[in-house]
Design brief:
- This is GNAT family N-acetyltransferase.
- Residues 6-172 form the N-acetyltransferase domain.
- Pfam families: Acetyltransf_1.
- This protein is α+β, with helices and mostly antiparallel strands.
- The protein has one domain (7-170): Gcn5-related N-acetyltransferase (GNAT) (Aminopeptidase), CATH 3.40.630.30.
- It has helices spanning 16-29, 38-41, 46-52, 104-117, 134-142; strands spanning 7-10, 59-66, 69-78, 87-95, 124-130, 146-157, 160-170.
- The protein has a seven-stranded mixed sheet, with helices on both faces.
- A hairpin with a 2-residue loop joins strand 2 (59-66) and strand 3 (69-78).
- The termini are far apart.
Length: 179
Amino acid sequence: MPAAAFETRWLTPADATAFQRLRLAGLRASPSAFGSSYEEEKDRTLALIEARLAPSAEQGVLGAFAGAHLVGMLGIRRQDGLKTRHRMALWGVYVEPAFRGQGIAQAMLAQAVAFARQVPGAVQIHLSVNAANATAIRLYEQAGFKAYGTEPAALLVDGELHDELLMQHRLQPPSTPAA
């Protein structure tokens, strides 16, 4: 299949239906790739999904479009806690199988890292990925993420345990404490 032209942009509440369609497709097709499940998300209301897609200066969901069709997504958000606000979390990365290998995930990752660099006080981005997903691990490594640990048996999917590789991308050095 020839490479399709695509564009990326931040999703808005108006994209809720397309987001939910792609999110549920990803959860069904690759259940061991996500901490959430199809069963948990299939009955979420449109209002809840719209709220999830409301972009802010500290979070957003990127979408990749082939024409008007949403074919990829990636979420990024700042951690809430006072002691963890220096951390951004990458979540929900998914590209439809027919559109993989065309640079879509790389483009979204680059945009997410650029976004995180603009968040005041953000020092690093964290993610977890199925330790058996060599393709995704390679993608993250190429984007500058480094593994720092493994969480054994992090997910239980259809009776099978899956380890998660923990990765981070350092955006800037931590500030030095005042003497």
